[in-house]
Design goal:
Largest interface: A-F, 34 and 34 residues
Largest sheet of chain A: 5 strands, mixed, barrel
Strand order of the largest sheet of chain A: 1-2-3-5-4
Strand content of chain A: 15-25%
Order of helices and strands of chain A: HEEEHEEHHHHHHEEHHHH
Distance between the termini of chain A: 55 Å
Oligomer: homohexamer
Radius of gyration of chain A: 23 Å
């Protein structure tokens, strides 16, 4: 069985299977297509029960209703799963609504996640090549061995390639975790050249694995959400566990080195209020923290500017997460 | 080799080896006795170098000076180690000062830690019996197996018996961790009876292990201090690692149960600002948090009242850690 | 005149007078029934004025409109009062709406509050018996006398029986204050056994009266809301005043005991930011605070789990008040 | 018995009884004089026990020792009481020290508090006249009656005249409470003219009584300290109780007016974190809060400038309470 | 060219040019009138594109649609500009909606801003006279010269007359800045009489200019919004720059006086968290801060009470900005 | 007159004029040497007045006393000025103390600041060359002109060369401001390559001038302290004023570019609580903030590690400013 199968979704075949996207659903159109099931609700109107759904893909979302066999339809799929529906587009309160005649859960090899979720601009495999190339530069034998153990964990690496860097704010796209990781590495490499006390191999290893717990903290089945582990442990502790288990397998891994590496993971959010159980206490930790912050914010600002900048609009909408408007810039001269 | 030897200090022989304590050092007295070395400093006076020490035991601390062979004396022992000194008590600026003629590092089997550190009122072994008895009440087979694995880890259990519950504030005494753990268990037991949604075995197991990381977070070599692990990981993550490694050894341990148990450890400080990387999200977690807080504060208040209450004094000195005075009570009627 | 009359609502007769509840209002139905008036607003549509109402009972709420005699109808009742309406159920924008033909204020003996507000599972009188039984265990004669004065204040006690423990968050139901009080007493009783410095009678008395100001802070006329006193003084100061006035009636009540008891009321929220004008400074105060917190949170978590847990849903909706999701648990095995 | 006698200290006779102050104690001088006992401690030196005291008056403080009859001397007076001592001034470690031969508790009519504590510049009685004159301007009959009840409470008024406005920060001097109260009244009077919605009588009454609880919150027996009531209830609740008890004596006092007046007392610190159990919710409350803040800060700044300004010094020492330096101003031109 | 022309809007001619206001737009009415363009959006419905607008004036806002020549219409005016429209009132989802046939940008002399924005009760010119009269009382020659430079800056003064005191919270009306400034001056004048260390001329000058940066921080073109300068610099720094540039023009302006005056502008918000880059460090600064706060809050409370008080309503709606309800008062007796 | 003379201290001649430093002052030594006067105080002992001084240089500080002609001595120099003293070293309470016979203010050309203050490792002129080289890379003509105006301001540039980067925490050494500036530029250069939306010239210019206000905020006359401007305006506003005045001299400088550049200065501390009057709202601002933070913290950590690391010490002393210990690292292997 191939690796891709084992993680459940067809990765290799990158041909788009979907031909019709939500943004194209015009009233009157007949539809047979895959969507992700975002919400489902049993409702009643004038004594008749019906099933109300929200369907989506990477282009948007649409309401849908089912009037027949609703109990069977309700149990067919869970929120977050992919479904294949047959029906046609009506309007309700002047918005398009999909009237569904048939619905069934999609099979894993029928769909490609990239049709349903935003993804990084660069190809996953190219990003992953960069990740592996950074590892080649590590000279410390214990850190090198640790990183090789990660590389050898194929199922983990397949998840890594697609993991998002966040749920809502920065790098919220498939491959975003690798993108973010590589930029943080890049800033840390610069810092390692600038500050003579820095243990370069330790810092770069920390940069490579600082967010590795996010692999287990986000589910990417149809849309991004936290997993139980993401909520009950948090991505920082998940990452620390993951690294601890690998270190346990390396005989003679120095205790002091292990503590300093874990400290990088644990303290990288910089403050207790940001869910780091310890604050940065080594020079590598304080550098990693600011490299992480700089890339997270720069990506979030870039994303907002790119998606909101239109002619004549100099300021973004209010950004709740950071309580401010963001400057989108003057219009380009023609 | 016996277990006690392997943890370094002679535990079995409970006979006190020290006969002279700091509080008894009167001017003129000749002294040959063990102390913990708390500070050492090379100084110079009118061109002559000397070594200034601070020595201590569980009854207090005293300054000491060495004028001869100071380099050799300086290298003899590190801060935190036990030393045997020979000398006599002089006075300096009206305070007793020990003039030291000879100093050497103590051997591990010459001293008993309990002479140097405050300890719980109840015997360690009785407290530990109570701890084991609680485990007998657990019915969930996975949680029971996990707790048995702890019990079977003899070296860990020897450390547990003596571990303090804190460094400065609550239960800062040998055996304090067990005392605290048992009281938290007791409050949780009450709560399990009161709230019907509580998973009693999970809550009690969480109470038993919530602070287990403190075993690796405090050093008790002469006086209480943080270990490197205590500072770089924090006791919460240390405890989580310890439990994670045990769970890894239990085949079939349910993933969901593991997450909920770890969540109890991780969230028990209640807030991110208190170094918990996640906030309580289960009913067991919210109860454990308040049980932990209640016992910590009640012990701290009790300790302050017991040590500061004297006739005519109704209020404690200012308690910096909690920014308040504590009411010591009216004088007892005769 | 009976006590019940004096507080305005018919308590004795527990037979339900309402036969039709909001949740049962189907289009087409003719309705003559009591509701609580939650909102009223004069509006205008195409030059014609009408009165828009929101009506409710303990099963839900529904919009209503009146087109005739609207001025008279508007003045008939205030928000929060009970009304009797005659009309029939129409639909508006696909939701049921009540078209009202007649409306009049309800008489006090026509309605029973329990039809309009959620209430505790156990009977008020059984809860109150428990409350009185706790008082019997108090040995300190001054505290006993104080509690007896409360018991003798029949009008106060009638209000106590029905008072909610909160407006939105925990114990927001008739009888909730008694439920909460008794659980806090229960935890404090446990603590009094565990910590030898605790003055048990003082702590239990404090637990019994810590929230007594809530009686005057919430109105329960139709739905829960703050009273002017609840807003302008807060329930902590209300409770302190209430107890101060009773103590003024007890000759020789020791000044020191009075201060320590009031301190329990004033400091029980634990922090200034939580509206306590002083922080806990006695061992009884610090215990009462955590007992109060534990029961408040455990009840709130229980309520959320019980009302939100459905098959396939492991996490609650976002809980704004505490900024987190709550874990609802795995589905029960069949 | 005169009023002055009943509060314990001789107020009428304003002739200074002390002739010798701490600042004048030069080595060699024989001393028979009254001081306030600030600290006492039994100590031991080379086997001999002695009593170490700290004595003070409004000019400063000095160490003192007693070698004979120390047990009797120790029990003679409590910290905070006035003592008469006989002895002579020696030096110890180059500082003056009083060797005490005899000590006895002072009788109440032998001493005058003003010799021991700093006091307001204006005469207490003149300040109090101003206070009474403000009351004459109140027209609302209930508020007027309430204020008259205060005036009729002679023992309270005697305490009011001398009460300090604070312990450390602002108006920390005998008479300081009246000084502060009158300035707050003055600012509120201005505001009442400026904002048309303000109920002037309510605002001025609130200004007059907002800090009245300080009378019971500070002890002025020798030096300023908190009373048990000041610590366990806080001056805000003390003041509220005091006013509540007076209002209880006024038949027909409107409930609404009582709530709004108490609200002024309770909310005047402006924020929960500042120990107000409720935040300002009326226009009078928000004005009173800022008037109180302005006078408190202006007095504290004035005090620091007046006591620290010397030639060539433009900035105060670091002021911990507000985390800043204060600008003392340029030197005056000659 | 007159001054008024140079700032773009016709100020002199105070006759109202608008005859029809949003609140009067009834279905069926034909409309040819000026409005401010608040939003515009290109949308598509069933394949046909249309332009959706929001129009407003000082009486409210209304939706509007354009179906023809939408590209030309879209480019005709920017959000915030005044437009003249021709059309008639329809209803859509039971709300009035304006169907627009023609739209063009208004010419500056066709409209009067006061028709579109709320304004102060007193005439701008009377307020400005008061402002100038305060300046006459300044005796310090440098401060006087500085204020005269402001007065001589006619274009600045024209903006000052109309500038609002805030965007949402206090004094959010044309002329509001002058109203606020004069009240702050008035409170400071009182304080200058009360505290002898205050430099009266400095304090009053600070009061006059403390918010002058708001002139450049808010745009009043149709509705209140922040300017780029308001967002990127903030009104505090804008004001400081403005005063700094004027001071640069006054030869010999004492460095010390300049720093103390700028300090008043910079610190007047009182805390770093409130966007003051320095905290008040002079007695004038601390007084100005509280005078500013008192007037801002008193105005905001007054505005809420005046706009929300209706019969039977004792409490305002929840006020998000300050997290509380505001007491509106009892109903007036008839 | 050379530039160096105009700023008061002899910069050119780098020969050390001091031959004796505080750390070398042994009891018995006769001393004729320059020191900086750190404190002076008139005191009295047994009726005789004397002058107590604290003297210092870059190697440490020492107490000194003068018994004769103390009034003349007191007026000879101000705190912060350089003095020449003649005397000899005694001991007092076992510490060396300088008994001063003669004291006079130093002339400016007698002393070299570098003897009194710590300084950067690299030569000021080399650092300044780097600064100028960065300017050569700016292509935007307005920004280039602005930076050239700075370069042309010779007196400002002389101050820049020596200005410290901070008072206590990071880069607290002569030349520290340039060191810090260049490292921030370097990190920003890296970021400009990584994020495509960044305006590189704007970001680098912002990095070059972000802390330029520190030139006027710290005095370096003998020891580092805040100037009046540093305290009353803060270095952020000082820097903004400085840049604003230069921009005023450049005809046609685009308003938008000026706002965005000032925004970089104003927001670079990242948060209001950190004294930035606005938060970062442009992508350049958010990057500059983290570059600034990273270098400040990395320098502070480096300084602590370099000055505190000794054999056997793995942890720094408690660092109050950031509330943590810092890890100093394992001992180097021999």
């Amino acid at each position: 069985m191939s690796v891709a199968k084992s993680v459940g979704w067809n990765i290799e075949s990158m041909q788009k299977m979907k031909t019709l996207f939500v943004k194209d659903l015009k009233p009157g159109l007949e539809v047979t297509e895959f969507f992700v099931l975002r919400k489902k609700e049993l409702k009643e109107y004038n004594g008749q029960r019906f099933l109300k759904l929200e369907l989506g893909d990477r282009s948007g979302r649409i309401d849908a209703v089912i009037w027949d066999d609703i109990d069977q339809a309700h149990d067919e799929a869970q929120v977050g799963e992919m479904v294949k529906v047959k029906g046609w587009v009506t309007t309700y309160k002047e918005l398009p609504q999909l009237k569904v005649d048939k619905i069934r859960k999609a099979k894993k090899d029928e769909v490609d996640l990239v049709d349903f979720l935003p993804q990084a601009e660069r190809d996953f495999n190219l990003l992953y090549d960069d990740f592996k190339n950074v590892i080649l530069t590590i000279e410390n034998s214990y850190l090198k061995r640790l990183l090789e153990l990660l590389i050898e964990d194929l199922s983990l690496m397949e998840k890594l390639k697609r993991a998002p860097g966040g749920k809502l704010w920065h790098h919220a796209r498939l491959g975003g975790l690798l993108e973010h990781t590589l930029k943080v590495v890049s800033i840390c490499e610069k810092a390692a050249q600038m500050y003579d006390l820095v243990d370069r191999d330790l810092l770069i290893t920390g940069a490579l694995v600082h967010d590795i717990g996010k692999i287990n903290s986000y589910s990417t089945d149809g849309f991004f959400d936290y997993t139980d582990e993401g909520r009950l442990l948090g991505h920082i502790v998940s990452g620390n566990e993951l690294i601890d288990r690998k270190i346990q397998k390396i005989s003679g891994f120095p205790q002091d080195l292990a503590l300093r590496l874990k400290h990088l993971i644990l303290s990288h959010q910089g403050q207790l209020e940001q869910a780091s159980p310890v604050v940065p206490q080594t020079i590598e930790a304080v550098i990693l923290h600011y490299a992480d912050e700089m890339d997270a914010k720069a990506d979030a600002f870039s994303h907002i500017i790119k998606t909101q900048k239109i002619k004549g609009k100099k300021w973004s909408d209010w950004v709740h997460l950071i309580n401010r408007f963001i400057y989108l810039g003057e219009d380009e001269e023609d």
